[in-house]
Amino acid sequence: MRFRPAVPTHLSDHNDLAPVDDHRPNTRRWATRAAYSPVMVVVSLLALIGILAYGWFLLNPGNRGDLLPWLLVVAAEAILVFHALMAMWTMLSASDPRSFAFHAAKDRLYDADANAELADTDDATEWPLHLADEPADVDVLITVYGEPLDVIRRTATAALAIRGAHGTWILDDGRSDAVRDLAAELGCHYVRRLTNHGAKAGNVNNALTVAKAPYFVILDADFVPRPEFLEETLPFMADPNVALVQTPQTYGNMHNIISRGAGYMQTMFYRFIQPGRNSFNAAFSVGTNVLYRRSAVLDIGGLYVDSKSEDVWTSLTLHERGWRSVYIPATLAVGDAPETIEAYTKQQQRWATGGFEILFTHVPLSPRRRLTLDQRLMYFVTASHYLTGIAPGLLLFVPALEIFFDLRPVNLTVGPLEWFGFYAGFYLLQVLLAALTMGTFRWEVMMLAQCSFPIYLRALRNAFVGADTKWSVTGATGRSSSPFNFMIPQVLVWVFLLGTTAVSIYRDMTLGYLNIATFWNGINLIALSAFMAVAFGEQAGLRGRRATMPPSPDPLPLPPEPIGEQVEMLDRSAIERARDDVASLLAGRAAQQDGSPEPDETGPRPQPIHRRAIAPGDTPNPLSEVSR
């Protein structure tokens, strides 16, 4: 027996999540283009030829110029060539992860007899889910840390509307009474902690002490899930070796330069790279829009808490334990990309620091890693990926060496046309491939790629010395008064390039010809000038908003940052009261069991709508609060 999903009453017809047809979800097309289009394969092969030819040109001893600029070019281009080759290999390895077993499990996801009993309401959110003819309970965990209430409401409302019976939990690390009231209004479970130990991963691990479903979904507060989320992910769990099912991060707010650039930067990864990693069992979690098997997470002791990139570390640990991961290129949740230079800088620095931590502390290529050779290589690519963001910074200074010191990376016997032919074969085909991937050429991506090297250098330093990285909300618009506070290195480099270009133009006018170093220095200056223009526009917008805003009272204190970022001040009196509440509650239960008089009830008692979380082993946890 089949039932047509009902339209959730709490979703507007104008909401993006409102159903647009009467068909079952399994009749809808896969939400992305296939990786194996003939044009894509041809361009990929041409790009591969261009990569190899350019690498041969650079390493040919007959073309080598002065040592210092040649080493800078070789170091930067070696990073780019290696990662381009790995991207080609991974992309061409992609395949559809939906096997016969997946389709069989999906067809039996709902039990017809159980659904028949619910036919009077036809509420798809109450349909029991089944795997291998056994009930499959699911918890949807929404991690919250100071996001606006309207953002949390949007995500929680959509999570409640996911088809298939499930529990919806709001995990509030911001400890906001307003968020607790919102959870009660919507009918969500609510969990808060008195500490922020372990940041987001610690928040989830704490919730797992009370959310006991064998499968759980993690959603960031700004990612709105689609109703078919569980229908497209849960069937993969029919394979008992699958630990996680990851879906893409798709952004719905790409309405300014920063958000478009940041969003489109992820397009190739989610559309082509992650699907290819399925072939090597190396697709990793990105921290949101992901379904986990609880037993797999417990097998590794919970989500990894010693890094802000807990998602990659958790995936790596699961793979070392022999678990499988699956990535599906279907848009099942839509979130917010960073909209400001501040938000973009913090996001990229956090991600890059996590990758470099793996590179320095875990050494993916080490034979001590309990991974296959393919997995070691894939994780090495992941850990070293942000070196590709440092490479443009090295290349920025090569023209200056020629302008000021007459030092060239290639000798004078190499003509400009010969050099340009090899260079174009590498870079222009890369640009063409990226344009095919994103559907169009995005200059915003080129600008951010050229101007983000100070962010990744700082992340490299943080990972090398073990410095901590502050946690921040990815989609936050930022609280800084000026974007220039987060781009001081870029401003200094822009001033340097401006002066260098002026000197170079004067020299070329004196000599009577245009030097190629002047041309490339000008290109670099244009890219940084565009970034500066974005910053000036953002600052002007901030000033305009401040001018039109009415005076406001003193703001409420922000939620404390996760432990490790600052000295954490605990409310000892609150902890003692919580312990007394737990002791009183346990004593009352013991008194009821043995028939002895209950303890004195004249003192304060816990609120009846709350109970304290009980950690594994039935150990009371006085640092958590749960509302059901």
Automatic annotation (TrEMBL):
- Keyword annotations from UniProtKB, A to Z: Glycosyltransferase, Membrane, Transferase, Transmembrane, Transmembrane helix
Sequence ranges of Basic and acidic residues compositional bias: 11-22
The cellular location(s) given in this protein's UniProt record come to:
Membrane
Disordered: region residues? 1-22, 585-628
Ranges that cross the membrane: 34-57, 69-92, 377-400, 420-441, 486-506, 512-536
Q: Name one GO molecular function term.
A: hexosyltransferase activity
Q: Where is the Glycosyltransferase 2-like domain?
A: 215-398
Q: What coarse category fits the chief subcellular location reported for this protein?
A: membrane
The cellular component terms of Gene Ontology attached to this UniProt record, alphabetical and capped at eight, are: plasma membrane
Q: Name one Pfam family in it.
A: Glyco_trans_2_3
- SUPFAM superfamilies attached to this UniProt entry: Nucleotide-diphospho-sugar transferases
Q: How does it sit in the membrane?
A: Multi-pass membrane protein
The name this protein carries in UniProt is Glycosyltransferase
Which species is listed as the source? Propioniciclava sinopodophylli
